[in-house]
Amino acid sequence: MIGRLNHIAIAVPDLAAASAQYRDTLGATVGAPQDEPDHGVTVVFIDLPNTKIELLHPLGEGSPIAAFLERNPSGGIHHMCYEVEDIFAARDRLTASGARVLGDGAPKIGAHRKPVLFLHPKDFNGCLIELEQS
Ligand code: CO
């Protein structure tokens, strides 16, 4: 069911410093910061030949990654995103198998303007998983 690894997301305490590190030290192609107020984050996408890295920084009050950065002040891997062909079919298969979808179970529009869902990390070996319709 899952397809390509769409991205790995890293929560970072300093978005400008992390962007500069990926651009200047690691020599990657780094995009401009994008505010995603619906998700409480500012994101920077880094294009790699086989996937993307998504740098995440809290935006506004009650950001879902603020607590993560409090627990991991120097940053850390926050989630990984797998592509699926049909997000509703994926959700139904997962919930039928007992996996928990975060929120109300309805896909939201993600940073790539495509429908996304998040799965409970306790159901997936401690990894927060995002599914994105490809
Ligand atoms: Co993501």
Overall morphology: globular
**Ligands bound here?**
cobalt (II) ion
What class, by secondary structure content? Answer: alpha+beta
CATH class value: Alpha Beta
CATH superfamily: 2,3-Dihydroxybiphenyl 1,2-Dioxygenase, domain 1
Measured as a percent range, the helix fraction is 10-25%
**Straight-line N-to-C gap:** 12 Å
Q: Could you tell me the radius of gyration in angstroms?
A: 15 Å
Q: What's the mean pLDDT score? A: 95
Number of DSSP E strands: 9
CATH architectural category: Roll
Give the quaternary arrangement of the chains. Answer: single chain
Secondary-structure element order, as H and E? EHEEEEHEHEEE
Count of DSSP-assigned helices? 3
The CATH topology: 2,3-Dihydroxybiphenyl 1,2-Dioxygenase, domain 1
Query: Largest sheet, described in full?
Result: 9 strands, mixed
Strand content: 35-45%
Unreliable segments (pLDDT under 50, ≥5 consecutive)?
none
Question: Can you give a write-up of this model?
Answer:
By secondary structure, the chain is α+β, with helices and mostly antiparallel strands. It has a single domain, classed as Roll (2,3-Dihydroxybiphenyl 1,2-Dioxygenase, domain 1). The protein contains three helices and nine strands; from the N terminus they run βαββββαβαβββ. Strands 1, 2, 3, 4, 5, 6, 7, 8 and 9 form a nine-stranded mixed β-sheet that branches. Strand 7 and strand 8 form a beta hairpin. The mean pLDDT is 95. Cobalt (II) ion binds next to strand 1 and strand 6.
